Amino acid sequence: MHMQNYKSISLAILATILIGTYQILWKIGMINFKPEFISLLTNYPLIIGFFLYGIAAIIILFALKKEDVTIVVPILGLSYFIVTIYAFYFLNEILNLSKIIGIITLFIGVIFVGGGK
């Protein structure tokens, strides 16, 4: 694999972590959300989440510039794994057998789809 490919895949992995992070921050920000202007300005989880959303989008664009979409996008799908782990640790959501099987299946799918190159 060419060095540029490793760079693009690393960018996709970084974007995946950011995607999972901003989604959890959005959830945390919405727990006590009030649709008031001042509340929006002081809702730091939402603000940070939107910032990470923008950074992740830019990183994805750079990854797509040098790598096939069929490699980058499946890696981004691993954000479900990140979200599930964060939800378990930060939101006390249940991690049951069904979710664990789903995550394992997701990893296998990424290997098959992304490993074809």
Provide a brief overview of the structure:
The protein has 117 residues and is mainly alpha-helical.
Q: How is this structure best described in words?
A:
By secondary structure, the chain is an all-alpha fold. It has one domain. The chain has six helices and no strands. The longest helix has 29 residues.
Give keywords.
single chain; 117 residues; mainly alpha; 81% helix
- How many β-strand stretches? 0
Count of helical regions: 6
CA radius of gyration is 16 Å
Biggest sheet overview: none
Strand portion: under 5%
Distance between the termini: 9 Å
Structural class: mainly alpha
Shape: flat
Helix content: over 70%
The number of domains is: 1
Mean pLDDT equals 90
Give unreliable regions as ranges: none
**How do the SSEs run, as a string of H and E?**
HHHHHH
